Amino acid sequence: SGNVSGNQYDVLCGAGSLNLINGSVGGFPLAVGAPYNPNQGAAPIDFVNTVPGGANYNRAYFQLLRRNTEGGPRISDLTHTSYRGVLGSKGDLGKVWSYDAYYQYGRTNYTQVYKNEFSAARLTRALDIVDDPNQPGINPVCRSVLDGTDLACRPYDVFTGAAPSQESINYLNVFGVITGRTSEQIAHADFTGTLGEYGIQFPWAEDGVGVNLGAEYRKEKLSLSPDQSFQTGDLTGQGAPTLPVNGQFRVIEFFGEAQLPVVQNNFIYELTFGAGFRKSYYELGTGRKYDTNTYKLSAELAPIKDIRFRGSYNRAVRAPNIQELFAPQFVGLDGSNDPCTKTITATDYGCLAQGLVVGQSPTANPAGQYNGLLGGNQDLKPEKATTKTIGAVFQPSFLPRFALTIDWWSIDLKDAIQGFGADAILSNCVNFSTATVVAPSCDLINRDASGSLWLTPN
C-alpha cells in the first residue's frame, strides 16, 4: 500500500483501467514527470497533487508480483544436533521374575538460517521514490533518505524493465534465523514372569502363563524461537509470519500383558491366547488433564505345524503432539488452486455459495499460492482406532523355505486429529454443494469484495 495522488488513484483503481487493483495483471501507469518513465513521448499524468496547504493523499493497495531473479536463489541452512543418553539395568529376580528398568534423556537442537531474502519493510521504502529536490534534473531517491528515517535506502527499479541496481539488491537483502529445541525424558520399569513355576499352567501346554507388568513416565517439551524478521513476516518469501511455539506435556502409564498357552504339541499343535491393557494419564503444560485406555486380545491356532490361523482385536489411541496442541494460529500459504477462477454459471453451486455471482470471473493467482488459517488447538482429544485382523500362514514342510500369508484387516478411526487444507476445503465446497444443499465447508471460505482469494489482504 502507499500514498497516491488523486490522479494516481484514478489510474490505478479505476474500474476501466488495466491494473492490479481490479484483478488484472497489467502494466504500471507511467508519467512523463516520474523518474522511471522511459516513454518521453507519452502524455503526462500528474502524479503530484497541487492542493494548497500540502499533498492530499489517498490510500491505495496493490500487489507487486515479481521474482528476485537478480539477487539469486533463497538459501536455507538447516542444522539438527541430537544428544541421547540412557542409563538402565536388567536382570533376573529368581527363577520366575526378571526386570528391565531404564532412564532416557534425549534432546535435539535446531537452527535454521534463511539467506538471500528480501525485507518487506525495506522494499516498501525502496519503492517509495521521489525526485531529489537537491539535485538538478531527475534524480530518483528514497523518500526515507530525504526525511532521514532510513539513509541506507536505495531505489528499487521495477518499472522500466532495466535490472535493479546491485546497491538496491544489497539494501533489500536480509537473513532470518530460527532456533528451537525438543527434549524427551523417559523413566521405564517392567517385570516379566513365567508363572509355570507357580503351577499356573494349562494341562495341555508345555509352557506356563507369561505376564509382563510395568509403568512408564514420559515428558516432552518443544520450543521454537524465530527472530524478529520471521515473527513480523518481514521476509517476503515466507508467505506469512513464523510465530514462536512453546509447549509440553507429561504422561504416566501403567500396563500389563499376558500370554496364555492352552495347547502345545498335544491333540493339536498349538492354541495360544493373548491380552494386554494400558492406562495413560496425560497432563498438558496448561494444566489440562485427560486419560486414555488401550487394550488388545489375540489368538493363534495351529491344528498342525504347517498351518497357523491368527486373529486380533485392538483398541489404540494417539494423543495430539505438541505442534498440534500449541502451534499458534496464523494466516499463511495453504493452497495452490481456486476452482472458481472461471466465468461463474448458474450451476456452479459451490462457487455461488462462496458469495460469487453469475458472470463473475475471479482471477487465479499466477504463482498458485493462496492463504489459509493454520495452527494448533489445545482442546484436541486423543484419536481412537479399533483394529481387527484375521490371517492365516501356510508353511508346508514338503516345500522348504516356502511361506504363504493371507491377512484381512479393518481399521475404524474416530476423532481423527488432522487438518483440512485450503485445497481440500475448496474442493469439498465445489463438489458437494447442490441447488438445495450448501456444503458446510463453504462457510470456511472467505473472499474479498471482488471475489478474490488473494488480491487484497481481506
Textual characterization of the structure:
This protein has helices at residues 6-13, 120-127, 143-146, 166-172, 228-231, 322-326, 349-353, 422-432, and strands at residues 2-4, 58-60, 75-93, 97-118, 129-131, 140-142, 173-194, 210-226, 245-264, 270-284, 289-304, 307-318, 330-335, 370-374, 383-394, 404-414. The two termini are 13 Å apart. It has 458 residues and is mainly beta. Among the domains are: 1-62, no CATH class; 329-380 and 420-458, no CATH class. It contains eight helices and 16 strands. The chain has a ten-stranded antiparallel sheet. It has a two-stranded antiparallel ribbon with strand order 1-2. Strands 5-6 form a two-stranded antiparallel sheet. The longest helix is centred in the last third of the chain and has 11 residues, at 422-432.
Nearest-integer average pLDDT: 87
Radius of gyration equals 33 Å
- Enumerate how many helices there are, as a single number: 8
Strand fraction equals 35-45%
Number of strands: 16
Ranges with pLDDT <50 over ≥5 residues?
1-9, 14-37, 43-59
Task: Categorize the overall geometry.
Answer: elongated
- Spatial separation of the terminal alpha carbons: 13 Å
Biggest sheet, spatial arrangement of strands:
3-4-7-8-9-10-11-12-15-16
Helix content: 10-25%
Main pleated sheet: 10 strands, antiparallel
The secondary-structure class comes to mainly beta
Order of SSEs, N→C? Answer: EHEEEHEEHHEEHEEEEHEHEEEH
Main location: membrane
Protein name: TonB-dependent receptor
Domain TonB-dependent receptor-like beta-barrel: 49-429
Subcellular location: Cell outer membrane
